[in-house]
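Quick one - first record:
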Amino acid sequence: MNEQKTNKLDNYKIELDNLIVNVDIIHNEKDFVPTYNLSILNISPMTQMILSNIRDEFVTRANAAAAIRASEKEPVETIQDRFRREINSLIIKYFPKIDEQNKELLVSYVMRENLGLGNIEFLLKDRQLEEIVINSSREPVWVYHKKFGWLKTNVLIPSEDKIRHYATTIARDVEKEITVLKPLLDAHLLTGERVNATLQPISTFGNTITIRKFAEKPWTIVDFINTNTMSYDAAAVVWLAVENELSMIIAGGTGTGKTSTLNVVCNFFPPNQRIISIEDTREITLPNNLHWVPMETRLPNPEGKGEITMLDLVVNSLRMRPDRIVVGEIRRKEEAEVLFEAMHTGHSVYVTIHANDARETVARLTNPPLDIPKMLLPAVSLVLVQSRNRRIGTRRTFQIAEITETGDAKVLYQHDPRADKFNQVAEWGRLMETLNLFTGLTSQEVKQDIEDKKSLLKYLVKQNITDVHQLGMFFARYYTRKK
C-alpha cells in the first residue's frame, strides 16, 4: 500500500498568556486543501486530560454562578473574578504541588475554554490569518491564510450548543443578543474583529460564526509598494490627487483590500486640515499628528432604540467644518446624495464602494439603490480600483480612472496580470484640466511632480518606514517645507 506524500508548507509559533502553540501547515496529496494544525507545546496530553476533568467539575459551579448573575445582574467582571478563584482552587486540588507560574498558565487555559472562545483565541492571535470560519460542529474550523488561502484546521467545536455559546458570549460582550427569534448577529469583538453569526435552522447545516480579522498594524503606502500591491506610478498619482484635494472613490470586490487602500490613501493627508472619518466599525488608523475625528455608527438596542446611521453621521460631519471626509462604504441613496453634495460644496471626499472596475463603479453609482444622477459624477476626480487574484492570493491596484465631463469613466492606468505591471493606457484629460484650472500647473510640471514624488516614495521604501505615524511626520515635513 502506497503511503500518502505529505509536504510541510510552513511552521511557526503563537504565544497567548504564556501558552505556546505550534502551527504546522501541511499539504497531504490526498487532500484538496492544506491543513492548519495547532498543538499546545507547554501542556502535556496527560495534563490536558486532567484539565478536561477540571472543566467538567467547573461547569456545575459556572451554571450556578450564571443563575446568580441573571437574578442579581452582577457585572461580568465580578463573575469572571469569581470563576477565576474557583478555577484556581480546582487547579490546586488536582495539582497540589504546582508552582505559581504554571498555576496561572493552567487557570488561563481553563478560563479560555469556559469563558472565552477556546482554541479560536489562538487563531485570533495568528497575524497570518484574515478570516476564521465555523460552519457547524460536524466539520473543522476553516481559516483564510494570507499566504496559503483557505485551510482546514484541526480545531473542532464539540457541539452546536458550544458554537451557540460562543455567539451568545460575543453578543453579550457588546450588549447585543442572538436568539431563536433573532438568529442573525452582526457585531464585533472587543478587540475590533468583525463577527457574523447565524443559528439553526437559518443555517441548515448548523450554527455558524464568521470572524474577519483586522490587521494589528495598519497598512501603509510603503507596505503596498513592498508587496507590489501598488506601483510607484500609481502611488505618485494618488499622492498628487490627495495633495490637490481631489475627491476619490476606491472600488473593488469583496476581500480586495478596499479599506486597507483607503487607509493608505489617508497616509498622504496634510497636517493642517480637519479630517472626519465615518465607519460602521473602526478600521482606519491615521497618523497621530493629523487633525482627525473618527466616528462610528451604532445599531439599535434590543428595544429598537438608539440607532445612529451612516446618514446621521455624514449629515452631522458637514456641521463639523471638515476639510476631508472619509467614509468606510456607501450603500444607500441618501448617504451617496449627501456625499456628492459635500463634494460640490468644496469638501474632499474619500469613500469605498463594491465594484469590479471603473465602468462598473459608474454603473453602481447611477443605478438603484444609489441612483445618483450621472451629471453629478464629475464631482469625483479619480476612481481607484483594487483587485484580488483568488487563485494565487495576490492583491493589486487594477485601474486608475478619471471621471469625464459626461460622468463616464476613462481608464488612465491598468494592471496587466500576465506581466504583473501597472501601465498607462490613456492620456490624462479632465484630470489634467482640473489640476491646471485650480493649481495653474502645466502638464509638464505635473509630470515632473510625479517623478519627484516617485523619488521620495523610493526613499521611504529604501528606509523601510512602514509605521503610519512616522509616515505622517514625513508627509507633514514635506508639505511644510514645500510651502
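second record:
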Amino acid sequence: MGRYITTTGTAGSVVRVNTGSAYQAVVNDRILCTAGGQTITLPIYTSCVDGDTVQIVDAAGVSGSSNITVARNGANIQTLAQDLTINIANASVTLVYSSALGWIILK
C-alpha cells in the first residue's frame, strides 16, 4: 500500500506547500500554487511505491491564463511520456503512482 493523502493527515507527513515558483514535490505533498507559470516536478519514480500520492491545487485560480506544468521526472503520466499541463483555472489534480503505469490522475 502506498503513502497517501488524507484530510486528517493520518497517513503520515502530509505537507501543505504554498508556492509561487518552481517546486520539487515529495510523496504526500499537497501543493497550493499561488501563482501560474510555474513547474511542479513529481518525485523521482525510483523512490515511489504503488499508491503514493501528490496533489496540486491552483489556489490562485490563474492556471487558465498562466499554465502550471507538472514535470513527470522519468515516469509516465496517464501512460504518456510527457509532462502534464494544468490550464484550467482553479483546477485540483491528484496523482497516484503505479509501478506498472506511472502517475495516474484521479477523477
